[in-house]
Every structure is written in structure tokens, then in C-alpha cells.
């Protein structure tokens, strides 16, 4: 299906604004998780970050960003697990999550006019794999 170029340009512009909001929500949530003890608030914050990753994944799918979708899916899965765990978040994991969100932001910053990500996602993908490994270990 081919979209009208003007409509796609408008859609891409809205996607970029939505990305900024979701990235900021994830940044804020991770920063809050670093400051609190295990609690219901931790579950709420993890749920909020989970929803942002999920929404960003859906928005990426809408405009055909196949490169971004699996990264968002991994972050979504990670926060899905974390929202079920009431525990002190390991500093290393929080740091990795912060780097992943910043890496995702940087990757989205390379989005060109045609809706293609031109940045290299290799390092971010490896970081996401490491995060998933740590989360699986914590969930046991």
C-alpha cells in the first residue's frame, strides 16, 4: 500500500513528536525506579514505562519501522517482567536501561524523510540482548 507523500510526511512528523513523549516517559520512569524501594509505586512506574514502550512499538509499526519495532518489543517485555517483581532494581540494570532508551532515541534521530532509520542499531541490539538476559535471571 502506497501512501500519499504529503500524508506520509504529516504522519512521520506526528510519529516524531510521539517518540519524544514516549522516550521522555521512559527516561523519567527509569530515573524514578533508581530512587525508590520495592513498592506498589515501583509497579506503577514500571507499568507506565511498559505502556510507553508498547505505544512506541505500535507507532513504529504504523509507519513501517521494522528496525525499531523489535527494540521496543524487547523493552516492553523487560518492563512487563519488572512490573511483576517487587525488588530493589540493580544499579547495573537501570544503567543499561537508561543507555538503551538513549540509544533508541539516537536511532530514532536518524529517521530520514522516507521513514527509514539510517543509523546503526547493532550496538543497541546487543545491549537489549544483555538486558533481556539480566531480566530473565531476575525473574527466576
Account of the 3D structure:
This protein is mostly helical and 140 residues long. It has a single domain, classed as HPT domain (Four Helix Bundle (Hemerythrin (Met), subunit A)). It has 5 helices and no strands. It has helices at 5-33, 40-62, 69-82, 91-108, 122-139. Helix 3 (69-82) runs parallel beside helix 5. It is elongated. The chain starts with a helix and ends with a helix.
Helix and strand layout, with pairings?
Layout: H1 5-33, H2 40-62, H3 69-82, H4 91-108, H5 122-139
Helix pairs in contact: 1-2, 1-4, 2-3, 3-5, 4-5
Largest sheet: none
> What is the count of β-strands?
0
Instruction: Label the CATH architecture.
Output: Up-down Bundle
Number of DSSP helical runs? 5
Provide the number of structural domains: 1
Mean pLDDT: 89
User: Rg, please?
Assistant: 15 Å
**β content, as a range?**
under 5%
**Which H/E pattern describes the elements?**
HHHHH
Oligomeric state of the chains?
single chain
DSSP helix fraction: over 70%
- C-alpha termini separation: 44 Å
Shape: elongated
Structural class: mainly alpha
What low-confidence regions span 5 or more consecutive residues with pLDDT below 50?
none
* CATH homologous superfamily classification: HPT domain
**The CATH topology:** Four Helix Bundle (Hemerythrin (Met), subunit A)
CATH class: Mainly Alpha
Amino acid at each position: 500500500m502506497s501512501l500519499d507523500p504529503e500524508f506520509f510526511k504529516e504522519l512521520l512528523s506526528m510519529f516524531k513528536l510521539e517518540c519524544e513523549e514516549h522516550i521522555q516517559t521512559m527516561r523519567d520512569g527509569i530515573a524514578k525506579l533508581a530512587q525508590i524501594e520495592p513498592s506498589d509505586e515501583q509497579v506503577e512506574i514500571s507499568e507506565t514505562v511498559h505502556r510507553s514502550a508498547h505505544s512506541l512499538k505500535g507507532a513504529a509499526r504504523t509507519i513501517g519501522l521494522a528496525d525499531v519495532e523489535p527494540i521496543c518489543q524487547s523493552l516492553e517485555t523487560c518492563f512487563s517482567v519488572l512490573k511483576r517483581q517487587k525488588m530493589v532494581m540493580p544499579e547495573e540494570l537501570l544503567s543499561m536501561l537508561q543507555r538503551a532508551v538513549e540509544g533508541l532515541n539516537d536511532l530514532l534521530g536518524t529517521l530520514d524523510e522516507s521513514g527509514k532509520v539510517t543509523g546503526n542499531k547493532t550496538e543497541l541490539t546487543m545491549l537489549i540482548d544483555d538486558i533481556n538476559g539480566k531480566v530473565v535471571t531476575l525473574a527466576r
